[in-house]
Amino acid sequence: MQSCKVFITQYFSLNILAHRGKHPEDDNLFSVTAQIKLREAVSNLSFLLSKGYGDRSAGQLVGNRYALNARQMQAMWRMSIPAQSIVERQKKEIKPESLKGKNIEIDGYNMLIITEVALSGGYIFEGLDHCYRDIAGIHGTYKKVEETLPALQLIGNLLQELEIAHVQWFFDAPISNSGRLKGILYELATENGFSWDIELVNNPDRILIEHDEIVVSSDAWILDNVSHWSNLIRYIIDKSIPNALIVNY
Q1: What are the pLDDT digits (tens) for 149-160?
Q2: pTM of the model
Q3: With 90 as the cut, is the pLDDT of residue 3 above it?
Q4: What is the CATH number of the domain that holds 222?
Q5: Tell me, what's the pLDDT at 17?
Q6: 65 and 145 housed in the same domain
Q7: How many Cβ atoms from other residues are within 10 Å of residue 10's Cβ?
Q8: How many CB atoms sit inside 10 A of residue 173's CB?
Q9: Are residues 206 and 103 in the same domain?
Q10: For the chain, what is the HEC assignment?
Q11: pLDDT tens column, 159-170
């Protein structure tokens, strides 16, 4: 059997990025002073959303008021949560420490990319629901970075430590290189004894909300529509990436 490193070399010889880290302007856009302005914007937008204002109009209003650029706007949206959504998500949350012996389903790209960003020294943003989110984009093609395998190994080790019975990953089939990534996950699972299954589907979000399993994701729409979810992404980053750049609310 090929080693995991050989497998990665074979299947990811093209479309390789060095890191999924910071944009060149991020240290300025998310400086201490800029974060104060961002938190005020998040507070205002969350208030308007809680009052039923339309997403687009509210976002434009707040973004213009605080003169946010495109990346700051993305961060504002990732962090802003209407009050009623926070309450409902808290009711459905399963703590990581309570996952022993249970099955989970993972929003694959959501979990992997956030962990890669954290390992790469990119900025992670804490929403009002205490979930971590990123503002990285893959634009229809997943490109491996140096942190891809370390991120998967880290995730696998912690899931194993939590004694989760079975892990089902879902990835977006239409995204290029998903099939190759699936092969890497199976290779890693075989070498480490991880109880994983990986499936490529056209719409992972829809699949996740239709199943009555505990879902791992920080995607707002998924969290609002699943029966149960766990904030494992935050758990993994807090526990194992202490130097991650977190913009807290």
Answers
A1: 999 999 999 999
A2: 0.91
A3: no
A4: 3.40.50
A5: 60
A6: no
A7: 11
A8: 14
A9: yes
A10: CCCHHHHHHHHCCCCCCCCCCCCCCHHHHCCHHHHHHHHHHHHHHHHHHHCCCCHHHHHHHHHHHCCCCHHHHHHHHHHCCCHHHHHHHHHHECCHHHCCCCEEEEEHHHHHHHHHHHHHCCEEEECCCCCEECCCCCCCECCCCCCHHHHHHHHHHHHHHCCCCEEEEEEECCCECHHHHHHHHHHHHHHHCCCEEEEEECCHHHHHHHCCCEEECCCHHHHHHCCEEECHHHHHHHHHCCCCEEECC
A11: 999 999 999 999
Average pLDDT over residues 11-30: 75
Domain, as residue range, for 35: 31-80
Cα 79–chain centre separation: 13
Backbone angles phi, psi at 125, to 5 degrees: -120, 130
**54 — phi, psi (to 5°)?**
-65, 145
Q: Do 8 and 71 share a domain, yes or no?
A: no
Q: Are residues 209 and 230 in the same domain?
A: yes
Residue 85: inside a domain: no
Same domain flag for 42 and 11: no
Please check whether residue 89 lies inside any domain of the structure: no
Cα(11)–Cα(4) distance, integer angstroms: 11
pLDDT in tens, 168-227: 999 999 999 999 999 999 999 999 999 999 999 999 999 999 998 999 999 999 999 999
For residues 15 and 65, membership in a common domain is answered with: no
In a domain, 88, yes or no: no
Residue whose tokens read 């479309």: 15
Of the listed ranges 13-27, 32-46, 130-144, the least confidently predicted one is 13-27
In which residue are the tokens 């969350």 written?
A: 46
The total number of structural domains that make up the chain: 2
